[in-house]
Queue: 2 jobs
Job 1
Amino acid sequence: MISSDVIRGYNDTMILYMLLGGESYGYEISKNIRRLSEEKYVMKETTLYSAFARLEKNGYISSFHKDGESGKRRTYYRITEEGLAYYQEKCSEWQITQEVVNKFIKEP
Amino acid sequence: MDVLRAYLNSLFAAWPRTAQVLNLKREMLDTMEDKYEELKQDGKSEHEAIGIVISEFGSIDELMHELGILPVSDDGDKVVVSKQSAHEYEKIVRRSARLQAIGWLSILLGVAATMCIAALKDNGAFGNWSSDQAYLFAVIVLFVFVVPAIGLFIAGGNGKDKYTMLENEFELEADAKDSVKRHMETFRPLHSRLIVIAACLGTLSPVALLIAGMRGETEIAYGAAIMLALLGLAIFLFAYAGSIQGGYQRLLQLGEYTPEKKEENRVIGRIATVLWPLAFVVFFVSGFVYGRWDVNWAVFPVTAVLFAAIGGVYSMRRKTKMKTKA
């Protein structure tokens, strides 16, 4: 398990990545994050919904209601232009962060 | 899933039931149920599935903090004041500050005018008027000033009854707090200027009395009247600046309006409602019955000092009591 302190700054990035391929809803996003991280990271429910609120407030995602395949009415999220720009910004930030931190990491 | 629903209900119980929160709760329940169903399909037992879903829920405090939502207090009587009603309250405070300040000025000017009339009568300015006629005239003049003042006080209090919740404990919405703070900062320079001018007027006002005293015995009453008029101006400024500042402090629960101070002020307020009318009774009785307009104005400064002393002793005793309790 990864400490949530370390990963906190990138929760939003992960969610935006999940929306790059198209609209999605809460559980699908959280399931895909778990799958992509090979079960190493599980985003808590409250973390997920905090991020939705924050991203929507900043205009990085927009939400709308839609009936899912199972017939359940759900809130779907879609990435916006601004969200895409923010995502790219975070990607280059991570490149640098990684380079810097790596300089201080010794292979065990 | 009833267990998950009950779990969420208990977590959300401490938070306000706004549309936003209820929506969020429903969304989260959906997600948790999806997760639960899938875990069961993967062959987990009911108990295991519920255990996993709950362990992956996270912290509701963190979520509400992110949304800027404040908890409902345990005792339920702590009201949350919105930005809109905070701004409305500011407007009402400004209006009532203006009206009540004019009211004070009018009362003091009325008393000053009454004293002038008494002095004029004593100095024979009304020719062959009888004392009764002069007194009647003085009373009418006093009423002309005091009655509108009472009207202003009542009008100034209007609309404040909607905000009685501010008398007790309350919570100001986060963004309301910031904006009220900004308004208070903008008002600060004007407030200091008004207070300084008022203090100067108040301190200089006895000079009028001194000058009049030097000009002769018969002039003292005029000096006192001028002094009262100057004091009226000082009180006008103090009341105006003080009420607005007080309104801000009340909203932000600062200074005189912290929860501990509020109780203290309630008691001191009760003392004031007895003491000041008593001072006026003494003033009018000594004036109209005994005709001592020349000295009886002294009852006001004496009451002010007495009032300050009583208030001071009370809050000191309260502080010691609280310390010994702690």
Note: Chain A touches chain B through 17 residues (CB under 8 Å).
Job 2
Amino acid sequence: MPVALKRKILTNFITLSLMDSIMQVRDLSKSYGSVRAVDGVTFDIPDGSCFGLLGPNGAGKTTTIEMMEGILDPSGGEVLFRNKPIGRHFKEKVGIQFQSTALPEFITVRETIRMFHAFYPAPRPIDDLIEICSLGDIIDRDNRKLSGGQRQRLLLALAIVPYPEIVFLDEPTTGLDPQARRNFWSLIRRIRAEKTTVVLTTHYMDEAQLLCDRIAIMDHGHILEIDTPEKLLDKHFEGVVVRVPTGPDGEDVMEIVTENLDATMQELLTSHTNMDGLTIHKPNLEDLFIKLTGSSLRA
Amino acid sequence: MRKFTAMFKARTMEFVRDRGTFFWNLLFPVILVFGFAFAFSGSGNALFKVGVIGNDANTARPLAFLQIEQIEFIPYDEVTGAVERLRRHQLDMVLDLERDEYYLNSEAANGPILRMLFTAGNAPSATAPPPGASFGASVAADRFTEQQVAGEPIRYVDWLVPGVIGMNMMFSCLFGVGFVIVRYRKNGVLKRFKATPVSAFTFVSAQAASRLVIVVITSIVVFAGTNAFLHFMNNGSYLTLLILTTMSILAMISVGLVFASRIKSEELASGLMNLVTFPMLILSGVFFSLEGSPPILRSIAKVLPLTHFTTGARAIMLEGAGLGEIAPHLLFLGILTVALLAISAALFRWE
């Protein structure tokens, strides 16, 4: 098919079906030498939604999100923000929290916020930022002396300085303790309550299931599935998951997905399977991921 | 402008609060100046040094004075340069064989001794002076007329202080701008700024401006602090000195920015910067003069910004040079700054 025609069909498709998308990703690719880190991904972010990009390390999540942020130039494809290519003023409308960012040293939390505050034409008041991200207790602390959770809260505050229309969070809770993760989730919910669109990458399934309206599962630079968490589970699982450890030390796991639990249990009993450590649970995204990629998410 | 001010403030606070770097920038040059002041406080050479213009080879009656082994004779092309050195007590006498004149410094203690040696020792060696003849009746006294100049001596430390301040300036500009931006790039601070509406130009100029103010102030503090104890000679104006200092700092910052434009690794940056700072340390005459070194070294030195600072500052302080006389140095530093800024702007990458 001629490229021009293909492009036209693509454009029609965009205008027809996605009136309420804040961002559209079209056939996006990124190559490093001969390695295709992202290989032609296409999806839309509905305005005001929380979109989760899931995948194991090296799946291409960060590369994808950085192309959407306008930080990386794509090798192919395009990113549209409100139906237009990313323009000059995009940076004033977007909030970004990178996966790993050092903060300027020797200055305090308040001074850091003040500096970023001066970067934007119509910034959020500093007191609001302190209140939203609960930075009151650490406001005069040197950036170097912040804990992991405190750092992430400050970085989030910097991301929401411009009243962004869309916020990108790249693995915001990786490395935090359970308490700090829960705190951070409530911050994300608060931002969502302002109708801000949130795009987040994670490799925690519980996080995605709890926060996201739509989920894209990525591996090896491709999108494997994309839908709401409920629909994805309905589509791939009916019934429950039974797991039985096998092998001499239980290092292998036999996994049975069944609609008829009684029959399955009966079968296990009659076949004299050792049932030590057997678990039965409703399938979750973790199970879906293992089913789709054949590997554990955190591997 | 708000963006610029915000970045400027953050960077300056970072410097002031980084106690280690802050005190190192102030203390190190002070220690050096005092150390050298004490190490070289002795009067040094017992030998007399006489500057000679022209030569004595085809004169009918050679001067016996020129044969005295305990005197070092240094040939000069021009009488003015030699006399300037005499004025600063770097020479004890100047002998102009072309115009038949000799110069002595009236404020130097060894002037009368050399006058006696010169006039007395130059009686024609073949015929001994007639008994009772005064020293003044010698050939030298007949042929040469004496000229007097006056001037305070230059101590080594007077000569050294522009060098040490220049060296401090060089390190502070190269590492304080170049190295810091490379570190920002490596640890992702630059990437975070890239994601804001701040332009690369605003970011870089704020960094440079902050460093300019810091280095001007530290240079003044180091100079004033050591001057309070050592009372350096300054025959020029402080304003001229400040203008030269500012231009030199801008040139050094531009050198730092070229390194900062793209390099991602701190190790590579530090290696390359040492590659630049060490030749400057040696060839720009920080600690010793390059007069009399091979011409190739002197031509290399001429393209180094630090050379233009040390030479210019010494001309102002020791010889009382004005803005007009150091204009070539200012012009060179200005051109270098513009050229290096253009290069670093073309090379600059946030990541």
Note: Chain A is about 35% helix and 25% strand.
